[in-house]
Design brief:
Blueprint: H1 2-113, H2 122-132, H3 143-150, H4 160-198, H5 211-217, H6 221-260
């Protein structure tokens, strides 16, 4: 009997404990729900504080980056201005000396057309010949612009108008370089050999052009053709120099205005 009673009591306990545990679990859930209801404003505020903090951190970093980029943009602007100023000096040299070349070349051309009406002395003709074989050369200082393109820093220049001007200017400078290279080849292959063969350059041995040679120039078709070729090539280059000079002045003006800001 005692054994049966023990079994009954054990079964009762086993049935009672699940009910008790279920009640405890339900109570815990109710407490959690109550806490969530009471504390959600605090949790929301904390989440907002974290989001705002992250946003402020990113904003500060962006501000610092923008400040660094703005400083770097100024450095590039100043370096570009220095390059443009150097180019303007080189262009002035090329323009001035090309104009002298064309002037003296045209004197010889007029002499060929009418030796009587446009007479020149042997000394003057010799001087003109020395000049027309010269090749005033424009060399652009494009280190800063090349660095901007190759380094991927071109975005630092915020002014679209300035970017367009720079591309136009350096494209013109590249065209001039190619024209100068072509002229050099023509001088080396065609013009130079003729002049070196028929005339003493630099009064070597004090043998300049004599009167007889000067008279024969008017009837020398090869001389006239070489002279025309030189004048034609230089005229094209002079036109390019003037266009590049105008663009360079415009670029300089924009850069000076932006550096002052």
């Amino acid at each position: 009997m005692s054994w049966l009673r023990l079994m009954e009591e054990r079964i009762k306990r086993e049935h009672h404990e699940p009910a008790k545990k279920h009640g405890e679990t339900a109570a815990k859930k109710n407490k959690v729900a109550e806490l969530l209801v009471e504390m959600w404003p605090a949790y929301l505020i904390e989440i907002l504080v974290i989001i705002v903090g992250i946003w402020i951190t990113f904003a500060v970093e962006q501000w610092r980056d923008n400040g660094k980029e703005a400083q770097l943009e100024k450095v590039y602007q100043k370096n570009l201005l220095a390059d443009i100023n150097a180019d303007l000096l080189s262009l002035k040299y090329s323009v001035d000396n090309t104009q002298i070349l064309l002037k003296q070349g045209n004197e010889l051309l007029q002499f060929i057309k009418d030796p009587q009406a446009n007479a020149v002395s042997p000394a003057k003709a010799d001087s003109d010949l020395q000049v027309i074989l010269s090749r005033p050369k424009f060399i652009t200082a494009d280190a800063t612009f090349s660095d901007l393109k190759n380094s991927g820093n071109l975005h630092l220049l915020s002014d679209i108008h300035l970017k367009n001007l720079l591309f136009s200017y350096y494209s013109m400078a590249q065209n001039i370089k190619e024209a100068q290279d072509a002229e050099q080849q023509a001088t080396i292959i065609i013009t130079g050999p003729y002049f070196f063969k028929h005339f003493a350059m630099g009064n070597i041995g004090n043998h300049g052009i004599n009167v007889q040679q000067l008279k024969s120039l008017a009837n020398d078709a090869e001389f006239g053709n070489n002279l025309l070729l030189r004048l034609h090539n230089r005229s094209e280059l002079l036109d390019g120099y003037h266009k590049a000079d105008s663009l360079a002045i415009e670029v300089k003006k924009v850069l000076e205005e932006q550096i002052k800001e």
